[in-house]
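Q: Here's a chain of 466 amino acids. Please give me its 3D structure as tokens.
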Amino acid sequence: MRLNDINTIFENKSHDDDILFFYTVTKKIEDVNDARGAKIRSISIGTPLSNFVIFKHLITLTIQNFIRDGQVSHLISLFNTINSIDISLWKQFCQANNNLQRVLSLNSEVNNQLVFPKLKQLLLNESQTEGIRYKSGTLQYYPTYTPDDPQDKILSKIPINLSLTSPSSTFHTDLNLTIPILTFLKKLSMKLNSTNYQNFNIFIYSNDSKDQLCQFILSLSNFLNGFNNPYFHNDKILYLPLIDLSNFETLLKYDKQVHNTKIIGTNNIMMKENFTDFYDFWYDLNMEELFMNETKLELFDVSMTKTQDFINLCDVLIKQHHDFDTVSNTMIKFTIYEILKILKRDDSENELNLKDYYLSRNKNLVFFDWVFEFKIIRLIDTFDQYFKILQSDQVEEMDVDTLYECLEFMIGFLVGNVKGHLETFIHILEIFPVNIQKIDELMMKIHSIIYSSLFYFKIGTYKNKF
């Protein structure tokens, strides 16, 4: 399959400020004097920040005071405390360095030695950032407002931590959910071999913590190109962290009009039996069991044959207990590895959008749309040609011409006026897979260009031949 045969062009816009997230903490204590047998109080924070979990400790402390005496002053103290935190410096950093943050997530040692010390020094010398501290790749913001109520004064002592190494659109969690997410992705990928790829409705059920269920679904969106970003057929995935019978009718009406993928959390087991005409998959998060609704899905007579690469990679990541950044960057590396295989195929159905081809044929679920931009695909293809020639023991005249063409494209990519190209170039260079024989080799630095002897020695060798 030739690169020019596939449509890779799509509209790439950011609408992060169009989404408002409401983060709610609810507390219940038994009370025989209450008609319901318990006091129930909830506090919600509305924010455009996708890392809204940073407010969790502030809300939790406030709701404990509020449910104890019912004084509205606790709520006023909470919102005054939050509104006193000026995060404009962090927002400016993220907006200016969105592509750089992908590079920063790769190597904490280099970041701590070269990048972050300069930022730390800047903060120490800047009088306007007195309430900001640097710590291990994060900015710590302390509130400038101190509540009058002694019970609420502790709010001013609790910093919020904002990551410098993760794009601001990434959903953060205070729970370690990488293994549950990888387990789900592995099981769903295995089931997709038996069905025609389409937009799915997926219920994720848990009878344990609602907090874990909601954070699981939002964290899952980091790997499935969530919210305003396009997925299969350029549709967007609708994520509903928690829904019950009381608000399900509205979703049913929406589903009749819009047939995009929906991933829905619920703690009501009755929905499994009562809404079989709605969902395609039901996943029990506690038992790690996936049920495929065969009455609703279009199934193949014979399961589609595909490689076990994605499943094997999930197994390796689960076994080795990696953190979120490592898992995310490995999945990006795997996506590049898969794209290279697609470009080598002799496939007559070349009118497919490359994104849809990747999802429908490879059925690997995890998807990062920025990798599928036309110039990024060109860069990936160029790297592949360039380093294959460098690996060769003999360089023909035709190969030299190809090398010059590759160099010309790379130089054009770097010197253009498109913001973020330099950072993207470095990021892909660091994770670009070479000499992969087994899928677990994606985890080894020696199979990345920038860490291999190929990068350091052979470039100079062939440079002399030119």
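Q: Can you summarize the key feature?
A: The first helix runs from residue 56 to 69.
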